[in-house]
Design brief:
7-stranded antiparallel sheet; Chalcone isomerase; homodimer
């Protein structure tokens, strides 16, 4: 009888494992990157391997982030946007980004060359990373980097682990305002959000 | 005693499950796409959700695939290359693509617009897909679409499930010859192969 109970208990323990494991590997909690007062402490370490690409924007003559900076004529950048696992599938089903979802926009400089496909450019190095964390619950109303349903962060290549944005209104709002009606995201470049 | 055996057997069955499941979700056998004589029957269905992006080339004035076709002036394409799960990690460890690995290059037309980042372009639709399957064992020496350690395939948007390449030498070799020394892959555009 004792052995019988042990069997049942063992079965419960073991059969409970695979789903929770599989769930863990399929989800990523963006709030693991955040402290109690809403400071975004780091970007996800492993996004190139474990996140999903949403899409890439090619940008000619990019406008620098620094206020008052001049346009960089003749430059070409590639902006790669990755999302935490499950984000695209959830968005296709619901039209919304799930609470805790993380988006990483990697801003890459490029090399260019004449390849067999045409005049090509490809990523040569990363300048900076924009990170957004979806917050459906307005968790940090007093933190200037949480606004409009997201946490907003910026990491630059010279100190890639240091969050350097100071306020949504100062560092983020201006560039994202044109897409406020699509939850502040440039969804036109992310076809996987609308169809597989 | 019988119950004891049952317990041990049950434990073996159950404890065997999670690793094999997790392995299954982490690997993709490209030869599932191939028949006995080496015909590549289809492209992977779910690559946008389940494969990993290796990198994206922006291509200005792309050269059309069709022999003798003129360069498309003023056009801009984005070429997204995805790899089956585990490919990048394996390549970083060994410097090689694993047997059965699948690469999908999605060739996208673009829309362009003045965005807050600069003169941007982003994917608007897919023209065609190039598919490569790594074959370390020279499995199909008599099939003209298997050569140089890979199976080579092409699918076009007007019939996305129909493989239309006829021979490596005719449809594939010319464009890939410049990178024959890096296993025929344009690895310079795929930074995730060299570092995370």
């Amino acid at each position: 009888m004792k052995l019988g109970i042990a069997v049942v208990f063992t079965l419960m323990m073991l059969s409970g494992n695979p789903p929770s494991r599989s769930h863990a590997s399929k989800s990523f909690n963006g709030f693991d990157l955040v402290d109690k007062t809403g400071n975004i402490l780091r970007k996800p370490n492993d996004y190139r391997d474990s996140f999903q690409i949403l899409g890439v924007f090619g940008v000619k003559d990019p406008i620098p982030m620094a206020p008052g900076g001049a346009q960089e004529q003749g430059m070409e950048e590639l902006h790669y946007t990755y999302a935490s696992p499950g984000t695209a599938e959830y968005y296709r089903k619901t039209g919304k980004f799930p609470d805790g979802a993380v988006l990483v926009k990697e801003v890459d400089t490029t090399e260019t060359g004449r390849l067999t496909t045409g005049d090509a450019h490809w990523a040569s190095g990363t300048k900076q990373w924009f990170v957004m964390i979806k917050d459906e619950k307005n968790r940090f109303p007093n933190n200037p980097l949480w606004a409009e349903g997201w946490g907003w962060a910026l990491f630059k290549a010279d100190a890639p682990d240091k969050q350097v944005a100071t306020a949504f209104t100062k560092d983020c709002q201006g560039c994202h305002l044109p897409v406020s009606s699509t939850d502040w995201i440039y969804i036109q470049g992310y076809p996987v959000l609308s169809a597989k």
